[in-house]
């Protein structure tokens, strides 16, 4: 059962959840909204790292991304990666009209054939883009960014960790209680529900780098196991220094690039 108590405390250490500062008693506890976000508000095209999930291959069919290629649009400048080489260029955005120019990759050699095919497709498709669209992924509380060509074909599909609700996976890591432990990233904030308390705090992204916290939590009475699991969860989140997607799951990595834990996107509806 979710606990909801009005007092919040600040976490100042990863290993121990020690209250050192109190927020106003009237402050509502952080929580994860149940409704799907408005893409125009919580998923802006600009300023958000978008990760390639599908691209139109040379044979005309859609292929899954073989590595974590991504793009970011900010102030007319395009940055990102094809999965092999870094990417730079320019873009123009007016309403839902979007065009790219001066797309330039770095010149590293790609030995993986799938990465070569992906890079060639990305470099070929981006100049053909004329607009964009948000299309809801069926059965999921999120939207994907689709870049559309002049024939109204969606030939590059991207997703972001933002505006989605994520449940911690197990993958050999100590499991969290099923059903309600979750986290969400929106508008520069990470917030969610731990094994005992709700929590919230800032987060930032820079390419594939990420920083989460410091986190604050409600101060509910917890059983020893719940408290230990919650300290572990908050410590993992604050240890994260980079992230990526593995078969659609969100993966967090520590400073040495070691995997911390993967998170599954929470399904909604049927």
Furnish the topology, listing elements before pairings.
Layout (H helix, E strand, L loop, with lengths): L7 E4 L7 E4 L16 H4 L7 E7 L5 E3 L5 E5 L2 E5 L4 E9 L2 E9 L7 H13 L3 E8 L6 E7 L4 E6 L5 E4 L13 E5 L2 E5 L4 E9 L2 E4 L3 E3 L5 H16 L2 E5 L2 E5 L5 E7 L5
Antiparallel strand pairs: 1-2, 1-17, 3-4, 3-5, 3-11, 5-6, 6-7, 7-8, 9-10, 10-11, 12-13, 12-20, 13-14, 14-15, 15-16, 15-17, 18-19, 19-20
Estimated structural class:
mainly beta
Order of helices and strands: EEHEEEEEEHEEEEEEEEEHEEE
Shape: elongated
Span between termini: 23 Å
Strand content: 35-45%
Q: Return Rg in Å.
A: 20 Å
Low-pLDDT residue spans: 1-29, 32-42
Overall mean pLDDT stands at 81
Structural summary, described in words:
This protein has three helices and 20 strands. By secondary structure, it is mainly beta. A hairpin with a 6-residue loop joins β9 and β10. It is elongated and about 60 Å long. The two termini are 23 Å apart. The N terminus is likely disordered.
Features:
270 residues, mainly beta, 11-stranded antiparallel sheet, 9-stranded antiparallel sheet, 3 helices, 20 strands, elongated, disordered N terminus
What's this, in brief?
The protein is mostly beta strands and 270 residues long. The chain contains 3 helices and 20 strands.
